[in-house]
């Protein structure tokens, strides 16, 4: 009698079931890694913006950028009038994106909300009152934050964590 080559239907079904189980375990983990990578990119971009703001502050002898855009400004009048260069193109080539986890609204945005008048200028950058995604900037203090109140993926690994995107870089030790 000739021996048949190949797999039986049962053997194939077992292999398919094993692959299905592995996929069910691996795919959610990969999805979480994608969100963590997006958040790491947002932290890196926030660091780049803050570094550029600090360099601007040093170059302009103590002036924070008026806004994070391509507009140049002057301050003072008469003989004390000073030219302040545009922030974008000289200190950053463009405003980077704040890329957050995919499950939150406005998860990829590079708009900058500038809050520059009254006591709200400081409050907004600590509570992310606008919550529109992108960045929020206060020229009164030079503080820049992610403009979103969503919690990051650390909640998945540490259920007691409540790290908000707008608090990146302001973590308590």
Broad structural category: alpha+beta
End-to-end span in angstroms? 76 Å
What is the global morphology? elongated
Q: Output mean pLDDT.
A: 83
Q: In what order do the strands lie side by side in the largest sheet?
A: 5-6-7
The domain count comes to 1
User: What fraction strand?
Assistant: 5-15%
Helix content: 25-40%
Low-pLDDT runs: none
Largest sheet: 3 strands, mixed
Please explain how this structure is put together.
- By secondary structure, the protein is of the alpha+beta class.
- It has one domain (9-147).
- Helices cover 36% and strands 12% of the residues.
- It is built from 3 helices and 7 strands, in the order αβββββαββα.
- It has a 3-stranded mixed beta sheet with strand order 5-6-7, sandwiched between helices.
- It starts with 8 loop residues before the first helix and ends in a 16-residue tail after the last helix.
- It is found in: Membrane.
- The chain crosses the membrane at residues 7-27.
- Keywords: Membrane, Methylation, Transmembrane, Transmembrane helix.
């Amino acid at each position: 009698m000739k021996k048949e080559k190949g797999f039986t239907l049962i053997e194939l079904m077992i292999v398919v079931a094993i692959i299905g189980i592995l996929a069910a375990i691996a795919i959610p983990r990969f999805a979480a890694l994608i969100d963590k990578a997006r958040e790491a990119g947002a932290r890196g971009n926030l660091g780049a913006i803050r570094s550029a703001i600090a360099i601007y502050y040093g170059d302009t002898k103590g002036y924070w950028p008026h806004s994070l855009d391509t507009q140049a400004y002057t301050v003072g009048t008469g003989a004390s009038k000073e030219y302040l260069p545009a922030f974008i193109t000289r200190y950053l080539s463009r405003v980077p994106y704040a890329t957050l986890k995919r499950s939150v609204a406005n998860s990829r945005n590079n708009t900058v909300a500038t809050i520059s008048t009254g006591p709200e200028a400081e409050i907004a950058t600590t509570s992310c009152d606008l919550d529109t995604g992108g960045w929020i900037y206060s020229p009164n203090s030079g503080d820049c934050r992610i403009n979103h109140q969503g919690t990051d993926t650390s909640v998945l690994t540490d259920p007691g964590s409540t790290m908000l995107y707008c608090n990146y870089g302001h973590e308590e030790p």
